[in-house]
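input
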Amino acid sequence: MIKRFLFFVVLLSQIGFLHASIVILNGLTHHYKVEGGKAYKGKISMENTDNTPQNIKVYLQDFSYKADGSINYTTPHTNKKTNADWIKLNTNLLTLKAKEKAELYYEITVPDQIDQAGSYWSVIIIEPVEDIQPNNKEGINITSIVRYAIQVITDYDSERAKPDLAFESVKIDKEDGKHILKIAISNRGDLYCKPTATVEVYNRKNGQKAGVFLSQAMGLLPSTSKLFYIDISKLPQDKYNAAIIATDEDENAFALNVELEVKND
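output
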């Protein structure tokens, strides 16, 4: 008999909780503005929604992501902007009784001296530990386990750092009968930000404005990239000029002029 375990990592809230028995109650991103030499306390609230007890192991990892959908989880110190050494967990193992709520506490101790201003980050992994049950049947036994990755982002001396957004690619795809503008945006700066992409569209023949469309805001760490999705299905088939503007929560704006063609094929 072959036993295989499938692991699903839940990083962004819109992915959902995949019917997991352990759910996180206070968000998957914990964001702090910090000063050198000071300590900050945080907690992760969780609940076991199942009718049986659940063991959980807790550990730290570095991570990064790219607009192609790849997410890399690595041991601490593989990211030069890691803050894993700053974070101390109050435990590495929890047991939640049936229907029980619990809190995991952590403390962030910021070093006295930090060479570079900007964002430092890591993730706290919350991973249920499944008891291995004997299976007398031949074949493959598959157990699905949901791991949660809670981002802990610390902004040090953020007044001296800033994001630097760049457009990597722009394309239109048709999904479920809708035209979706997909914009790959990277953060080449030193500071975490949460930008929104806006596209202002003009008819190429007469210059009249055809519409303004927005994406959802998404967090973007330094040296990472994401795809921003914008539904432009209201645009009729035609050729357009467009201005794409990425704006963060501090109103820093980055613009790109492109030509778009909407086809009904």
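quick obs: The mean pLDDT is 89.
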